[in-house]
Amino acid sequence: MKHPNRLSQLINTNGLQHAGYLAVAKTRAKVLKAFSYVVPIRRPMLFVGETSCEELCDMLINEGNAHVFIVTDAVLNKLGIPAKVTDYLDEKNIRYHIYDGITPDPTFAVVKEGLRQSVAAKCDSIIAIGGGSVIDAAKMIAMAQGNKCQPEQLIGLLKAKKPSVPLYCIPTTAGTGSEATLGAVVSDDKTHQKALSIDPRMVPLAAAIDPAIMQGMPSHITADTGIDVLTHALEAWMSANASVETDYYAASAVKSVMQYLPLAYQDGGNLKARKEMGVAAHYGGIAFNKAGLGYVHAIAHQLGAYYGIPHGRANAIVLPYVLDVNRQASKKRLAKLAKQTGMIRQGNAGNSDAEIADHLIAQVRDLIASLHIDPTVKGMQSSDFDDIAKAAAKEVSDTYAVPTYLSPAEIKDILTKIKHASEQHIGAAG
Ligand SMILES: [Fe+2]
Questions:
Q1: Which residues form the Fe-containing alcohol dehydrogenase-like C-terminal domain (predicted)?
Q2: Domain assignments of the chain as residue spans, ordered by start
């Protein structure tokens, strides 16, 4: 089993050192909040509906672009998904070049090959058609081409000196919200360690939420990615860096997921549900762009790195436990969210914040159960938990402004519960 984050071992979070860790983490959270106020973050122009792809292409053409680099993956290309865009570009006599080499968790080699092809074809704009991996890779290609540099030089905060090549995104899943965010993740070719590039200039110019493109998504992917949306929204809502603005997007996303994810899961052809989930994913992205995420993502990233659990499913596995540990610190905020989104028992609006928060958490558990998301984490070993807890604690301290900071023992307690639930599920199935 690979151990993805040795840097985390530099953190010792016992005793007095834990107090030091908390001080550093809280200071970083304040710096991130100041960053989000000082550095303006652009919003993509948003087109929604079954003609949104054409509207996005019209914008690209009206802005004077004449040779488009289309970034996608081989599966989507084989299914003919880019045709909706390429047929329209043909109609408008706009040239294009398709690169379908994006893989899940794209590496620098994958991004560099896209960059090479875009530069060689002298493309002046990029359309990404795909899920989070495709959009992240397209962001890196666009930024590297715009800055005439290699993708590795963009890793870190505000590394670009010039704007990216004009970037337009058509998400095919309702999950990451990457078409709204200022970051992109690329994996190292050998170690598969993930590297992050953050720059407001990475936010795409426009995004098209086309429910017809999303209707082919299999139900288990709909479930996993939908819970990713819910997690973005809930973590942004509970963040110490939440604002009036991020609350609006987070609450809207939570309401849509609770209402429309079960419908999109049961009937992939329900275009209304697909559209609402696509917009919810976008709103979730806007919310966490500024407010950040929390322990669900920090632990889920490790479940992905150690045990290969897909991102959305890992979130679904971790989310209820983190809601439980956040309950005390976040009960007032969760009660407010429940009231805004209608997640309260009828006639029980007068209950205490703790009771209302408990009811919201119960509904999140019920939603996850209704989507039949597999809680199995194969190969999970208690001997990994020290390293996982340290890596998750480091991710939180480096990046997020959580409502309550957990000790390594508390993180390991969550991991133990996940392991037990996984073993129970395997036992019940066997
Ligand atoms: Fe996520």
A1: 222-417
A2: 6-38+218-429, 45-214
pLDDT score recorded for residue 430: 66
Phi, psi of 46 (to 5 degrees): -115, 125
Q: How far is the CA of 177 from the centre of ligand 1 (A)?
A: 8
Cα-to-centroid distance, 297 and ligand 1 (Å): 6
Q: For residues 281 and 219, give the distance between their C-alpha atoms in angstroms, rounded to a whole number.
A: 16
* Average pLDDT rounded to a whole number, residues 223-245: 97
Q: SS3 breakdown of the chain: % helix, strand, coil, rounded to 5?
A: 60, 10, 30
Contacts of 404 (CB under 8 A, 6+ apart): 325, 326, 328, 329, 330
pLDDT at 7 over 70: no
Asked whether 160 and 117 are in contact (CB, 8 A), the reply is: no
Sequence-ordered alpha helix ranges (H) in 79-124: 83-91, 108-120
Whole-number Å distance, alpha carbon 304 to ligand 1 midpoint, is 12
Q: Which fold has domain 45-214?
A: Rossmann fold (3.40.50)
Do the domains at 6-38+218-429 and 45-214 have one common CATH topology?
Answer: no
In the reported structure, the alpha carbon of residue 13 is separated from the centroid of ligand 1 by a whole-number distance in angstroms of 26
Mean pLDDT of the chain: 92
For the chain, the residue count is 430
pLDDT at 23 over 80: no
CA of 347 to the centre of ligand 1 (A): 34
- CA–centroid distance, 65 to ligand 1, in Å, is 32
Could you tell me which CATH class the domain 6-38+218-429 is placed in?
mainly alpha
* Model pLDDT for residues 294-351, shown as the tens digit of each residue: 999 999 999 998 999 999 999 999 999 999 999 999 999 999 999 999 998 777 667 8
